[in-house]
Design a protein that fits this description.
This protein is α+β, with helices and mostly antiparallel strands and 234 residues long. The chain contains 6 helices and 8 strands, in the order ββββααβααβββαα. The chain has 2 domains: 58 residues, no CATH class; 147 residues, hypothetical protein PF0899 fold, CATH 3.30.2320.30. The radius of gyration is 38 Å and the shape is rod-shaped.
């Protein structure tokens, strides 16, 4: 208590109540978990107190206004989900374009290597033999230019040993970079471009699996769905 100049005693002014109540000993006071509370959380250095809407002067909000606010929040949440879906779609399209570009670049490089006798035709033959799993005599037909390249590669003892049981013949009807393997009634025609297409198909399948996993990890419905391509929705 203080005294004025006239000698009248004046009671000290009470401190205004703070919105944030600092809890010195939170054990003595039950605090509503934030995960189940609609109150406004206020943080302090000592502890965390929960302040209700009524305590901050919002207890008399019109129910219609509150309903409208909830509607706005729901619309905002839906807009965020749509943006996330568009982002995933754009990312998937960019990945597909990247696969197509990589395939086109690899195809050009393969064509360049074939024209300049810089590809492993012996490896192409061995891969074809692995697919057939042959246990009898084998005849291989290939383009005359590739046949000459094969003879050059067979100068290496290691390569010659792998193909010493294979009879190779020239065939002008076969395109460069292609191999026709015959064993009894079994025939296999393979080429570099077919192998590239197989690689491309594998990439696209893995990309589809990745997109499905990504679309299913954070959607509101918890279901998996494919988003249409842009050119179909434009």
């Amino acid at each position: 208590m203080t005294t004025t100049a006239t000698g009248t005693a004046v009671a000290p002014r009470a401190k205004s109540a703070s919105v944030a109540t600092v809890i010195a000993n939170p054990i003595d006071r039950a605090v509503t978990p934030l995960s189940r509370s609609s109150a406004v959380p206020v943080l302090s250095n000592a502890a965390q107190a929960v302040v209700t809407a009524a305590e901050v002067g919002l207890g008399g909000v019109d129910p219609e206004e509150m309903s409208r606010l909830k509607g706005l929040l729901a619309d905002a949440a839906e807009a965020v989900q749509e943006l996330q879906a568009q982002h995933r779609q754009s990312l998937g399209e960019m990945q597909e374009v990247a696969v197509e570009l990589a395939t086109a670049a690899a195809s050009w490089l393969v064509g360049y290597a074939i024209e300049r006798d810089m590809f492993a035709v012996d490896d192409l033959i061995l891969k074809a033999l692995e697919h057939l799993e042959l246990n009898q005599s084998v005849k291989v037909r290939l383009n005359p230019a590739d046949h000459r390249l094969l003879q050059t590669l067979l100068s290496d003892p290691a390569s010659r040993k792998q193909l010493d049981q294979v009879a190779c013949e020239r065939d002008e009807s076969i395109l460069r970079g292609s191999v026709r393997v015959e064993s009894g009634r079994r025939i296999l025609l393979t080429d570099m471009h077919s192998r590239l297409e197989e690689i491309r198909r594998t990439w696209m399948e893995k990309l589809d699996d990745t997109q499905i996993e990504r679309r299913g990890d954070g959607t509101a419905s918890g279901t998996l769905r494919r988003f249409p391509e842009r050119r179909e929705t434009a």
